Structures are given as structure tokens and as C-alpha cells.
Predict the 3D structure of the following.
Amino acid sequence: MLKNLILSIETSCDETALALVEVFGTASNPQFRVKKSCISSQIAIHRPFGGVVPNLAKREHLKNLPVLFQHIVPQPKKLKLTTIAVTVGPGLEPALWTGIEFAKQIRAEHFPDVPLVGVNHLEGHLLSFLLSPQYRTRGMRALFPAVGLIASGGHTTLLSVQSLTRWKKLGETRDDAVGECFDKTARLLSLPYPGGPEIEKLARSGNPLAVPFPRPMLYDNSPNGKFNFSFSGLKTAVLYHLRDNPNAHHADVAASFQESAIDVLTTKTMHAASETNARSVLLSGGVAANQRLRTSFAVVCKKHGVAFAPTPIRYNTDNAVMIAVAVWVGLRRKKRYPLTANGCLEI
Ligand code: KG4
Ligand code: ZN
């Protein structure tokens, strides 16, 4: 029986997040108990700029980190930590450095004997399905091999996942990430940042079949195209539609845009699942908080006879709990990342 107590820190973008997570169970069937999790969102600060401003993010992280630490660990001397985990990339480097430096500082001050380990943010997203009770009931073996889709503000990445510790990237976006596309489209519709949840809300009262927006790269079966994505053309199609139809019903535009994005994500993922004989689809990243996307995946997975293992809704957008999950798996993979911010770190 393994038992670990992990303190994790996430500052890759515009959320300052800390968590205290207990891990028990076996290496092939770990269980994560979230003892504490705090997220300080900077949305209100970046909203007037329509996106994240790196230096403002850095300033806010510096301000928030000690406050969250005090909240999560009021009595550091009493805590029997086994690992400190901190995101080292990918993300905004000035923001990543604040987390890394803070982790070094608290380790030196309070936990000099506890290892400090760097974590890949994308592995956090990919592995956050482990926070769902669903995989426990099905058993881990029933899920692999799997296909993983990370759909976030910075990434749209498809992976073939052989086991909890082995995976390979199949494809990714060639331009905008799908979350970025939601954010940019929301701006065209005069909706505030971040655009994903706003579009989802507005789309509920719209007709998803009203505007036949393109499905970029959907039918590209070339070796270089079949598992890659492209979302910048979809945003441009919305721009032209709004320019040519000044009286367009915005809810219909939002619903049709969302449908197009969902269609591309689900179709390509299921294509990858059938080519790799996957037994399940692992879905994560901020866009995976979208209820219509989750429902669509549940439907297509059922149709293909494949299990669906989405990350629980609250752990799709950036958080520190997923960083604790990734460090635990990372230690089993014996994969080490240097404690240096790397904005372009690959999964
Ligand atoms: O994973 P995440 O928190 O940060 C990155 O690692 O990028 O993802 C943030 C992205 C934003 O683009 C946001 O608009 C999108 O996730 N998002 C959504 C929803 N909630 C967040 N997109 C569509 N529907 C949602 N409900
Ligand atoms: Zn993220």
C-alpha cells in the first residue's frame, strides 16, 4: 500500500493554484484524495485586455502564492509531505518562474528534506481522468489502450495512450488551439473573456444547424493531416459571416460555431480510436468543461463501443490537483523535468 502526501503548485497561465493531495492504493490502481485545493483566478484582471497579459499574470501570482500557501498549509511544520510538485511548462515563462521560485523558497524554509519535482502541465491534463471515480469501477485495465484528447486554451493534442505511463502524440493543432478559437470567436460576438463558457451559455438558446460553418481538416486523411487540427479558419468563417450578415442571430452563430468545433474534435478522436484499437477516450483540458462536448463524446463513444473517461468537470480548467496526479505518475515513469521554466515543453 503506497501512501503519499503531495503539495502541488500551478502558475502556468492565469490561475494561481495550490493543492494538497493524498495518494494511496497501488501503482496500477492509485486513488487520489484531494485534501485541499485552492484556485485564485485572474479572469477579472485580464478581462479588460481580452486575453492574458503575461506580466500582469506574473504580478498576480507573486501576490497570490503566499496567501494560498498560508491557506493550504497553515502549520507547515506539522505536515508530513512526501513530494512538492510544481509546473515547469508549457505556459507563460514569467508566470511559470513565479511558481518554480516559490516552490524552491518554501522547500528551503519549511521542507528541506522533501523532493521538489517539476511537472509537465499537459501531463496534468492528460492524467486528470484519474480523478474520476469512473475508472475505478471499470478498472484501469479496461481503459487501455486509450486515445487522449487535450482540448485547452493553449493546446489541442491527440495522443495514443498505451498505459498509465506510456503514450505517444498522434497529432495537434497547426494554428489556434480550440479554446483559443472559442475565446476569439467570443470576442467577435462581443462576449467577455474567457469565451468558452460564454459561448456555451449563449449557444443553449441557438440553433446549431443555423449556419453551416466549415469543419476544418475533417476529411483530411493524409498521413500528415488525419490527426492534426486547424481552428483559425473556423474563427475567420465566423468573422465573415458576421460581416456579411449584420443582423445575424448571435445565439445561432454561437451554437453553429460550437457544433462545428465539437464535430471536428469528436470525429477526429473517434477516427484515432478506431485506428489504434483504443478501448477508451480520455478527455481533458478547459474546453472539456463544455457540457455539449461531453455529451457528444458520450454518444459517439457508446456508438463505437468505446469507454468514455472524461476528467471531472471541476478539474478540466487549470488547477493544481492535476499537477499532483501527474507528479505521482511521473515518479513511476522515472521521467524528470529540470526545474526551469520551459514555455514550449512538449508532452
Ligand atoms: O485548460 P485551460 O484552463 O488552460 C490552458 O491550459 O489553456 O483552458 C482554458 C480554455 C479557455 O480557452 C476557455 O475559453 C476554455 O478553456 N473553456 C471552455 C469552457 N470552459 C473553459 N471552452 C468551451 N466551453 C467551456 N465550457
Ligand atoms: Zn491547462
Q: What stands out?
A: DSSP finds eleven helices and ten strands in the chain. Residues 13, 152-154, 179-180, 182-183, 194-197, 200, 285-287, 289-290, 317-318 surround KG4 (ligand 1) (CB under 6 Å). The longest helix spans residues 250-275. The two ends are 29 Å apart (CA to CA).
